[in-house]
Specification:
3-stranded antiparallel sheet, about 400 residues, 16 helices, single chain, binds protoporphyrin IX containing FE, Cytochrome p450, alpha+beta
């Protein structure tokens, strides 16, 4: 039994491209302590898969954590029965049945409206012109906060994400996060009477109708906003970029031997939009000969797990024809992404087919390079393209 070996990272290199570092970690120190992150990292797919389910040790309950302090106590920071009870209240809004019956048409209408406006332009950065407003309009519908501007939905989501990963304690980042949560609370204040009078399948409405205390309703709406904007936006841009830079995969798609569902599954394996999920060690534990100290912090590294060569041949290659069922981009335990069916509908069934159908001849505008950054939240930041 030993303490986790120390593995130093250069934070800016790690932010720019964590994958070479992950490969070394998996090879040399798959469970390691990274001083720059103040955490123990689990980097192999099987370790993530096993440990995430051991909630007695790897707990989601983090009362002192930034998420609790800044966004309120949501279901993602609960364990066991308390977590399951709250998750069950959310499910009517995001269950596959509701997504197919209710959200599909609403998401498709958002895509059609934005792409109709975009079509005549012949070129744009798809970040600002499509992925951002589309993800935000879908999330406004899904949360029930249809009174928000899509620009605020995106900005407040970013501000909360920055706030909850502000381990350096930067006061300006914290102030922006407080401003964002205040804006969301004001939007909730306006919409609560509306959904009380006329319930609908939105998250705000189903949680309120289930009788969840208002503080928890607010905390869970903020959770959906922090998790439901950035990732769809990143995946829409990233999957389009992957197809534009892998013409052989695009040809398979056009020939009908590949589906957008496979492109979606492979993209979220290849560049996982949520690279890690944190846990608190609730009791002393030994795993794979490594001692875990109570109250230490552990990161389940989904981004690394999904490139694990033990499970994925040529793991660094984007190949939508591969078998991806062992990938864990949405988690691998009781906290499996509650919005996964909505995300798949939004992206694989609505956004990707609509973009390629509405913008014929879509290709990269190579005058401006595409930027890809991040490790905890990783994604394409801009996508200059032309069509027609
Ligand atoms: C492609 C897009 C998305 C990806 C890759 C993604 C990924 C994830 C991951 C990795 C987790 C943590 C799982 C864990 O710790 O085991 C998570 C949790 C969660 N996600 Fe997503 N997510 C996406 C979209 C969404 C959307 C659109 C929503 C909106 C409703 C959403 C709502 C949630 C919620 C509520 C949780 C917490 C679940 C729980 O703790 O039980 N996600 N997501």
């Amino acid at each position: 039994m030993q303490a986790p070996p120390v593995f130093d990272v250069d934070p800016s290199d790690f932010h720019a491209d964590p994958y070479p570092v992950y490969a070394r970690m998996r090879r040399e120190a798959p469970i390691c302590f990274v001083p720059q992150l103040g955490s123990v990292l689990l980097t192999r797919r099987d370790d993530v898969f096993v440990c995430e389910k051991n909630i007695q040790v790897f707990s989601s309950h983090q009362p002192q954590g930034l998420m609790n302090r800044l966004m309120g106590h949501n279901l993602m920071r609960r364990d066991g029965d308390a977590h399951q009870a709250e998750r069950r209240m959310l499910l009517p809004a995001v269950a596959p049945k509701t997504v197919a019956a209710h959200w599909r048409g609403i998401f498709a209408a958002h895509a059609a409206r934005l792409l109709d406006e975009l079509g005549p332009r012949g070129g744009a950065d798809l970040h600002a012109a499509f992925a951002l407003p589309f993800a935000a309009e879908c999330l406004k519908s899904l949360t029930g906060l249809t009174n928000m501007r899509h620009q605020d939905m995106d900005a407040w989501s970013q501000a909360m994400i920055a706030g909850i990963s502000n381990y350096q304690g930067d006061p300006a980042v914290e102030a922006r996060c407080h401003a964002a949560t205040a804006g969301i609370d004001a939007a909730i204040d306006d919409m609560l009477p509306v959904v009380r009078a006329q319930p609908n399948p939105s998250i705000l409405s189903v949680l309120t109708a289930a009788g969840l205390p208002e503080d928890s309703v607010r905390a869970n709406v903020k959770l959906a906003i922090s998790g439901g904007q950035n990732e769809p936006r990143h995946v829409i841009l990233g999957a389009i970029w992957a197809l534009l830079t892998h013409p052989e995969q695009r040809a398979l798609l056009e020939a009908g031997s590949l589906g957008y569902g496979q492109v979606f599954d492979e993209y979220v394996r290849w560049i996982s939009p949520i690279g890690m999920s944190p846990r608190r060690v609730a009791q002393a534990h030994v795993y794979q000969g490594i001692a875990f100290e109570p109250e230490s912090r552990v990161f389940l590294m989904f981004g690394s797990a999904n490139r694990d060569e033990a499970h994925f041949a040529a793991a660094d290659r984007f190949d939508a024809t591969r078998e991806q069922s062992r990938a864990v981009p949405f988690g691998a335990g009781p906290h499996f992404c509650a919005g996964a069916a909505a995300a798949r509908m939004m992206i694989a069934e609505v956004a990707l087919p609509a973009v390629f159908a509405s913008l014929p001849g879509l290709h990269l505008d190579t005058r401006e390079p595409v930027r890809l950054t991040g490790w905890a939240f990783r994604g394409v930041q801009n996508l200059p393209v032309r069509w027609g």
